[in-house]
Amino acid sequence: MVLKTFGWSFAVTALGLAFAAWQWGWEAFGIVLILSILEISLSFDNAVVNAGILKKMNAFWQKIFLTIGIMVAVFGMRLVFPVVIVAISAKVGPIEAVQLALDQPEQYEALVTDAHASIAAFGGMFLLMIFLDFIFEEREFKWLGWLERPLAKLGKIDMLSVCIALIVLLVTATTFATQAHTSAGHADKSATVLLSGVAGLITYLVVGGLSGYFENKLEEDEEREHEAEEQAKQQGKQVSAVGLAGKAAFFLFLYLEVLDASFSFDGVIGAFAITNHIFWMALGLGIGAMYVRSLTVYLVRQGTLDEYVFLEHGAHYAIGALAAILLITIQHEIHELITGTVGIILIAASFLSSVRRNKRIAAAENAAVGKGEGDKTEVTSAV
Predict the structure, then answer these.
(1) Does some domain include residue 309?
(2) Confidence of residue 218 (pLDDT cuts 50, 70, 90)
(3) Residue 241 pLDDT class (50, 70, 90 cuts)
(4) Tens of pLDDT along 49-104?
(5) Domain count across the chain
């Protein structure tokens, strides 16, 4: 079952890592591997959400999502989007950006270095908003309770995350941006950082608005479906679970694509904190996206992996760390391996915390069962 579901992902991983080592050396191998792990960890909760929605569709729309959807996710967002970001930031055409990366890597590196302040500000604000909206939301499970409980209470204040993000942007623009790195040395990029940061904030709000719109459409369709089922039961008709089709499934498909796009943003933008090499980036994120799709299929067929309740927390803390790193790199250089390792450590810590929690629950349940059996034995002996 595992080999059947993850077979293509394993094959793409082996070929991708081998190609990176052959073409660019062991440094590229390490960076591509880190990017793959980062993409999987950041998109784990997205796979869980995808699985929960995908199982409501009929077989046709599931196949559409897992075929056309993977083309959009891997080739669109992971390959084209990084090129578009570089092209816009460096003020060159997308084809010219690719040609420069292939034929004149030194000039390309200079363009990316000059554009790094705008890329970091845009990405840092986008990722920061994802992190802030997560920690300010009241949640059933809390990983770092001493921190998350008071923040959840503060989160009841309207627009708090936007206000904090704008304050962070102003501080960044008046400190780091005044001595931003360029290929010619240092330069004042305050205006560029402000403009790019606001663009990142607007992008997040637009993506969130689209997700909310499709989510509302989904809820409306589910309500209508439930009403139709109730009417059928009242009329004595048999109700069969065939999965959504037609307009309802189409809105589900669009909603899933918007979700994928939003999670692709954090993966692609976070990758700029690790490397500026668009081919390493596309290769690593593409491998990660394959695993996210395979994991989605696995969750649909086997159930869920919800018992690891702190993984989502670890992923979002990794996003917050990447946001801070991106903003700091406007002025100070941070090694790519350090950046990638921080995210992996946070994910691993949240996974281990989830495992320990599950063991405590299992031990408590076993103790309760043992106590119950002991009570029954005492009663039997008394009789």
Answers:
(1) yes
(2) low
(3) very low
(4) 566 667 666 677 777 777 777 677 666 776 777 677 667 766 777 788 777 777 77
(5) 1
Residue 357 lies in a domain: yes
What average pLDDT does this structure show over 106-114?
Answer: 71
Q: Residue by residue, what is the 3-state secondary structure of the chain?
A: CHHHHHHHHHHHHHHHHHHHHHHHCHHHHHHHHHHHHHHHHHCHHHHHHHHHHHCCECHHHHHHHHHHHHHHHHHHHHHHHHHHHHHHHHCCCHHHHHHHHHHCHHHHHHHHHHHHHHHHHHHHHHHHHHHHHHHCCCCCCCCCHHHHHHHHHHCCCCCHHHHHHHHHHHHHHHCHHHHEEECCEEECCHHHHHHHHHHHHHHHHHHHHHHHHHHHHHHHHHHHHHHHHHHHHHCCCCCCCCCECHHHHHHHHHHHHHHHHHHHHHHHHHHCCCCCCHHHHHHHHHHHHHHHHHHHHHHHHHCCCCCCCCHHHHHHHHHHHHHHHHHHCCCCCCCHHHHHHHHHHHHHHHHHHHHHHHHHHHHHHHHHHHHHHHHHHHHHHHC
- With respect to residue 302, please indicate whether it lies within any of the assigned structural domains: yes
- Residue 77 belongs to a domain: yes
CA torsion 289-295-300-306 (nearest 10°) is -120
- For residue 286, the enclosing domain spans 1-362
